[in-house]
Amino acid sequence: MRSWLPAQLSIMLCVLALTMVSPALAQESGSLAESTSEEVSEKATELMARIQEVRDTISQYKVMLLTASHEDSMVLRLQIDDREDAGLAAIHELSALYAEVERRGDHPELREQMAQVNELLAPQIWDLIGKTQQEIDELRAGRSGSSPMDLLELEDEIAHRSQRLDIIYGHGWQHIQSLENLGLDTTEQRAAFTSLLKGRVDALSGRLALALDRIGILKSHLKDVPGDADLTQRLIASRKSLENIKTNQFAMLALMDALELPAERYKEQMVTATGDISSGLLSTDVLKNLAGRAWGGFVAWLAESGPSLLFKIILLLLILFAGRILARIVRKAVETSLKSARVNLSQLLRSMIVTLSYNTVMIIALLIGLAQLGISLGPLLAGFGVVGFILGFAMQDSLSNLAAGMMILIYRPYDVGDLVEVAGAFGKVGDMSLVSTSVLTLDNQKLVVPNSKIWGDVIKNVTDQHIRRVDMTFGISYTDDIPKAEKVLIDILTGNDRVLKEPEPMVRLHTLGESSVDFVVRPWVKTEDYWETHWDVTRAVKMRFDEEGISIPFPQRDVHIYEEQIKRIDQAPVKRLGEAEKQVEQTDWNQETAPEAESDD
User: Does the predicted TM-score (pTM) go above 0.90?
Assistant: First the structure.
């Protein structure tokens, strides 16, 4: 910081010259008032005082550093950094003030003074950049041999100094802009700054690749020794270092864009290495280069691995084709075996076993084909297990239907084609899966019922048994001949070919109803003949009863009528009518006398 001293003296001379020239400015330029020249002088004096204060404060802090403790020295360095930024900002502001004065009039004396100041200031910024970079390098050198906890603190300090270096680079670029605003030649300064900037961008590019390699190695070690605290801490420190490098490189690439320097190569590295596709990195050239590189890599990979990959794909297709043929053969064999076997299985279970055998062969063929492509089956099967575990929680209702479907297949309460009543649905079983059962109603509607509702409720299978009893009731009049009617009913049953001899049909006098004497007729028939028998017997009973003179009575009621009640009912309307007429006459009288009452009042 000793090199600041001559610059401070030159700045003080410049400011004094500025304050002396300011009154003359007002006389030369009619657009500037006297107050404006006074404001310029006051501002210049204020900046000079601020720069002098910065110089004195930095000198005091440097003296204090000689005897300060480690923690106090860190605080003092931070304060020195802050003061340096304040001093550079004041100088930039002073340059902007001069540029405004120069814009309103030509002042060679001031131009010469400011040129001297800036010629002295530029090397100080370049030296400050070199000094800060050297501090960062010394900190990085301390990484080797550091404990994991010390390494984390070291990375924090490196990050702080690197951010400080970014700020100084920003001051360097601002200084060049200030010189250009003053109309001064910046060729030498631009060349020096560009050299420093390119050097740092190159260094950060190498450190970015090194940080990524270090992170990859630590991750690999952690796979071998999971849970190792030392490796975990070092991995955290390496990731901090990577984030710090990315931040620094972003700042430097922004400066390269400002200087219109080519930076596509570094931007490509940032995108490919970090996956960051922010707007500051992507441009037309970068996208074109990335696409070209990706296409070139794909072509190279295709040229190298294409023939073997093509052979593997053909082999996969052949395996799948052979697996499909084998699956069909297995399905046919299983189906034939189940038909010829004496095992009593439902049609639903047979269909499920046949389908499962086919799918099992196809899955095995697919796994063999994927193995030929080089796909590891272990992680794939483990992934299926994890997915199945997650789906098990997410699809609990479906799993309950699946479990119910398995119970239905095992216990066989019904089969395809059975006439059933399940969960409020009545019809024939059309199809069944492990999740649901399709029921076709008698009017040909399709109902899909979840298996869990079926298994959790009463299952009524109408066609499960080979024979059924037809329950019918026929009534005769109380005046008819009971033995004759009974003989007629027995003749009708014995004459029907669908009625089975065993079990023997039954005709019994069952109840003495209000209007009839009721017989129960209960023949046994094959299940498929149930309704035909019911209809035939009902028709035959009506025709035979008519032929034999046996009546089928209608419902009868005895109605008893008493004479006194009839008279009372007939007189009641007349009495009510007389009361109504009397009420109307009373209303008319009230209306006629009302005006007289009002006039009396």
Answer: no
